[in-house]
Amino acid sequence: MTDSSIKKRTDSASRLIKASPETIYQAFTDPRAWVSWLPPEGMSGQIDSFDAREGGSYRMVLNYIGSDHVNLGKSSEGTDIVQGTFLALVPNKKIVQCFEFESDDPAYGGSMTMTWTLTALAEGTEVTIVCENVPEGIRQEDHEEGLNSSLHNLAVFTER
Q: Gene3D superfamilies per the record (predicted)?
């Protein structure tokens, strides 16, 4: 096996949101808020457990909406299940989480780390997400589309 075959990918996205870092941070630490904006377009979410503190864990079930997505699930037909841990919660500045997909497919194996950075600007907050060690089974184009969709949802949720 060569070094390039084991190198993990990093994906990222960023968006200016017209809301304060405090408002955005609250959308990460309230499970009802989180599940309403985090699932990308075409998916719905359900929180099974949620403990928003450093070292706290969560489990989220994401369901694809519509029969044309039935074969897309990483955990089962039409479903992605993630089990994660909050590695760092810096109020109004940063959220770092690590999670794994519950999947029998090794293409979705391993732990992915997601770092959300909130940067206060005069016109709002720049929200940047960096995903490290992205599983090889996730196509980069699909992942970037999903990240941007979640950022759009976060903007809609917090700008109201």
A: 3.30.530.20
Which residue type does 110 have?
Answer: G
- 3 SS3 class: helix
Q: Cα(75)–Cα(61) distance, rounded to whole angstroms?
A: 9
Q: Count the Cβ atoms, other than its own, within 10 Å of residue 60.
A: 21
Structure token digits, residue 78:
């039409």
C-alpha span between 3 and 51 (Å, rounded): 37
Alpha helices in 10-139 (DSSP H): 21-29, 31-37
Q: Check which CATH number belongs to the domain holding 33 and give it.
A: 3.30.530.20
The residue range of the domain holding 80 is: 9-158
Mean pLDDT of the chain: 91
What is the predicted pLDDT for the residue at 78? 75
Paired with 117 in beta bridges are 94, 128
Q: pTM of this prediction? A: 0.89
Residue 142: alpha-carbon gap to chain centroid = 13
**In angstroms, how far is CA 13 from the centroid of its own chain?**
11
DSSP 122: T
Each residue's pLDDT tens digit, 28-87: 999 999 999 999 998 999 999 999 999 999 999 998 887 565 456 666 667 888 999 999
